[in-house]
Design goal:
Layout lengths: L2 H21 L5 E3 L2 E3 L1 H26 L12
Antiparallel strand pairs: 1-2
Helix pairs in contact: 1-2
């Protein structure tokens, strides 16, 4: 499996988790000194998606290869 495929799959999984977390939002709470922050969980999912987006952009740049761009000058 290539890096591009792995990153794409990871991103899709994170987006599915984020969609689930936002479709059925849960409140943050504390019990016996243990705290659970669902808003922090959603924020961490978004941050991870953004990190993967950056990696995908770099991966795409590496795989782009040479290219030609046609320009026309008009006088």
């Amino acid at each position: 499996m290539s890096n591009l495929t792995s990153l794409t799959n990871a991103r899709a999984n994170l987006i599915a988790k984020y969609e689930e977390a936002t479709a059925n939002p849960k409140p943050s709470y504390s019990v016996d000194g243990q705290s659970v922050s669902h808003s922090e969980y959603r924020r961490s999912l978004l941050e991870e998606i953004l990190r993967i987006d950056e990696l995908l952009a770099r991966e795409g740049d590496d795989n782009a290869g040479p290219f030609e761009e046609t320009l026309r000058g008009i006088t």
